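Box 3.1 A note on notation
Throughout this textbook, protein chains are presented in two layers. The first layer is the amino acid sequence; the second is a token string describing backbone geometry. Keep the layers aligned when reading.
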Amino acid sequence: MLAVQNFLLIVAEIGLLLVIFGVINWLAGEILKQLTKAVSSKKIRITIQNIEKNIQTVLTLSAGLLGILILGFNSWLIYQGENLLEYTKSFINSIPKEFWENLGMGVGRSLFLLLLVAITQPYIQRLIDNLSDRTKKFQYITANDESIESFFNFLSLNLINIIWLLSLTLCTQFIQLPEVIPQYMYIALRIYIIIAVGILLVKANIIIIDTLDALSEKYSSPNKLLRLYDSLRHLIPLSKRCLEYVIYLSMASLVFQQLEFIAYLATIGPKVIQIVGIFYTSRVIEEIGKLLARKFLLGDDKELDEIDRKRRETLLPLFESTLKYLTYVGAIIAILNVLNIDSTPVLASAGILGLGISMGAQSIVEDLVAGLFNLFEGYYLVGDFVEIDDIKGYVTAIELKTTRIRFEDKDYIIRNGEIGSIVNHSRYSEAVVTVNVAYNANLEHVYKVIEAVGEKLKQDNEDVLEATEVNGVEKFDRYQLVIQTTTQVKPGTNEDIEMYLRKMIVDAFEEAGIEIPHRGDRKSKKSLEDQDLEDKEEEEEEDEEDEEDEEEKEDQEDEEDEEDE
């Protein structure tokens, strides 16, 4: 019988120990689960899950060690011949009566407090739900409903958890547990409140930004200042991230302050927050500066002619890059000052290093000087069709060191210092087509037909800038009259337009009954293209004959010189 009583008492003590550790494990698990739900970063979630596993491991080991200790102590008492029930009663009787009275009052106050919290919890939940519904109806904006619902769900859950945790902490004081327990529970409560409030601020930040974004989109118009918001809207994700970092850093600093052994780390947080603020401010200044530069240089594109618009589009990247470099240099100087690093020696060293590099790299300086002259003189602009030395194409970018040209599927990068001759077809190119007609043709009628073809070509082809003009008779050929025509076309399209125009002229001549020139006894009509080819061949033959005559003259002169010698 005595052995059974001792066994049941040991089981009761170990069971009470397991219940206590089970409650602590449950509370820690619930708190960490709520933190996992509230955090959006996957890495932070994995970290919290690892912390939860470590806490469970520590609590399990602690419960096991205490259980073994209780079992060993009771076994030692049994070995000494003690009756565990009598020993426990005597231990309890040795405790003063006032302790039990205070314990009873503390338990009563604790039960009343916990009952009050349980009764008020549904009302708190209902109040938060009403606030959530009213917030969703603000300005009838639905874009932020999801973030609002997430915010108030987290608020409801963590507010109830904080109330319960505060109640349990007060209960430890009511039942007069050792002071170290309420002390650490208060520390845990403060840390939990800091983390919960920080995450709430993150969620509130998302709500506020989404709401402002929706309001700006709703009320913006071309005549209001909010129209500029569309140009800066891409900064919203960066704003969210930077504010989240600031909140997390502030939260970490406050948590470090609660723990004495790592309290010195709390001084790092404010400096990192300042660095984040400097980075974000510099980014915003850069974007606003680019926007203002674009508005100042381009303004209303409809009021600018094509040449002026291209000139300003060419200068715009220079303004943007200069603003970018100045902004980031200022940001680096500000960050050095935050880190208590004197920026003067750093800037002096950078200036000396830059001077040495510029003196050693003369080709780079030559490219920069040539690039500046080109930008200010405006030899060619972005979008112009140019021919630089043996390379032709459209100018895609003009930088201080290089010029980029693209033609068909090829990209050319030319150093500004190596640029020689420049042919700029910025405004238009000319498609030159020669037309051969018979000597007995009516030139006025021919001119009218060609001009009609030019008008039709302009209507059908958007690459044609001006209708075809007849320049007149270029020369009297052996078999026909040669008439020259010019057509103003977009740069780079003259060859295609010339081929298409020749075909149209041939068809128009046949319809108008204009005689196609013939040579000798050959009565068949030929296309103008074939005639041009034959003319070119004859010209080449004449040139070859002239060259042979010149060579013979030179040989004769050389022979005469030799005879004289």
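The first strand starts at residue 385 and ends at 388. The chain is about 70% helix and 10% strand.
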